[in-house]
Amino acid sequence: MRILDKTLIKELSATFFAVLIVLLLIAFGTEATKLLAMAVEGKLPASVVVQVLFLKIPAALEILLPLVALISVLLAFGRMYQDQEMVVLQSCGISGGYFKKLVTWFFLPLVIFAAWITLYVTPWSYQTERELIREAQEISPVAGLIPGKFNVLPNGAGVLYAKDIDARGRMKDVWIQYGERETPWVLVAEKGRFIQQQSQIVLRLESGWSYRGLGSEQAGLQVQTFKRFEGALPALSVAAGKPGKFEASTAELWQSDRPEDQAILQWRLVTPFGLLVFGLLGLKLSKTNPREGRFAKLFIALVAYIVYNQLLVYGQDLIKEGIWPGWVGLWPIPILYLLWALWQKTIPMPERTSVNGSLSLQGSEK
Description:
Mean pLDDT: 81
Low-confidence stretches: 235-240, 346-350, 352-366
Structural class: alpha+beta
Order of helices and strands: HHHHHEEEEEEHHHHHEE
Strand content: 15-25%
Helix content: 40-55%
Radius of gyration: 32 Å
Shape: elongated
Distance between the termini: 43 Å
């Protein structure tokens, strides 16, 4: 490997990972805020917030990696144009094809890495996230309860209220109503807590009253007092959802004939290729004139990236609706962008003519 190769690869690597870290911090700062808000509201167990945040990294990389490739190449080679380093290299006989080849070889391992994330890691992360939340909710039934609020039980099984709930799940001034609407059962107690017995969650109340048949004229009202009450209740936290469409493995999507599955499969196949496309596009847009700023074409690059993603989303919708054939997929979009990145305007070279034994240059006539 030549010294120039090592220098350019080192420059690209440093810029690529710096941009990746910055964009990940921006993206996950917003995501962390959402998860913490869900934990405060009781929609997500606080014990799994960090794990859920890390499991969202693969899905975020699918969106961020092409953008990172675009910005990193744009910044790295844009600096070289501003410092006149590219002019010196070109004057030494290094053509533009050399830089395209270098960028291609630099991003090929990253394309393979992105394909592994998109095809295998992302579906696993969605499935693991759902299972993690479900297990945490089963272990910690109080995670879905908010003190000082009437918490609706899953499936409309009833309502629970507790004035105060500590970290260990011990409650004070508990009021719970569950059962059928015609014959509701109301329990009021000074203290209460949840305990796990085998595979069931049991509510234990101390020093309270039991009311049966409120509002029922036929059954009549039954009032009892108790020192300790124990009863198995349905899970009080929000139940985990059913397996999502993004959890399906790539092999399952490949064998499926449904348009919805084909749309997801095409997204997974096209996404890794975007790194190479936007890497070459960044090389094209990095060329600036001496009087242009280093970030002169950054706005154009961002607009191109946004349009690219919107076209992919629109193409997915067309495949889902059966308007666009699944065997064609989303490939026309990255191919058009690749042609844009590789297209280079040809400038006619001057011709040499001899006049009276002396050499002079004359522009070629069209």
